[in-house]
Amino acid sequence: MFTGLVSGVGTVTAVEDKNGLRRFTLRSDYRSDSIELGASIMHAGVCLTVVEFGPAADGGAWFCVEAVPETLSLTVLGDWVIGTRVNLERSLKLGDELGGHFVFGHVDGVGEIVSVLEEGESYRITIRPPVDISRYFARKGSVAVNGVSLTVADALDNGDFQVAIIPHTWSVTTLNELQSGSRVNLEIDMLARYVARMIGVDAPSAETGEGAEHG
Fold first, then answer.
1. Residue 82 needs a FRET pair 20 to 30 A away by CA distance; which of 37, 140, 202, 212 works?
2. How far apart are the first and last CA of the chain?
3. Where a domain ends, among 90, 122, 137?
4. DSSP 3-state assignment of 31?
């Protein structure tokens, strides 16, 4: 469980394919004594398990995580190369402040950046989600974009949605690297998911057991 409040930005330093898995090594400013083997860390919205770690020579720590082919194909992790910068968040502990919203680290789809526009000192980003999840984004609702908890500023008639980025978030996350055409991991607000099921949008039909389809 996470909050969507990024606590660090890591950099991919190695990528290795082995035994059907892709292993990523990242360098971060986390202290090595704050990381544990088997710990869950969210990477750009994807919850991954630490399989190896140690102190970095210049301070901070390095650690390794692994991803299966399905994760690579359904998220932006398949795009990662050496030098890619990644939003990081360690898992929520009991008693921690919940400043964002409940984020699970389970990506629901990959969106495409339509535009990034300056609005004074802030930025407005328009995102095109996959068609099958576009109904979940409502004005003033929550969304995790590459692991960052954001409020939906507007939901457009064509299915796109917009988020407004304050200067602090812009400066301490990788959102400042986004441009038209960039791909981003999206996680739906769990509240929106349950509301959709309660009103019947995603309720299983009696005949097929599949989620009902509504225009």
1. 37
2. 32
3. 90
4. coil
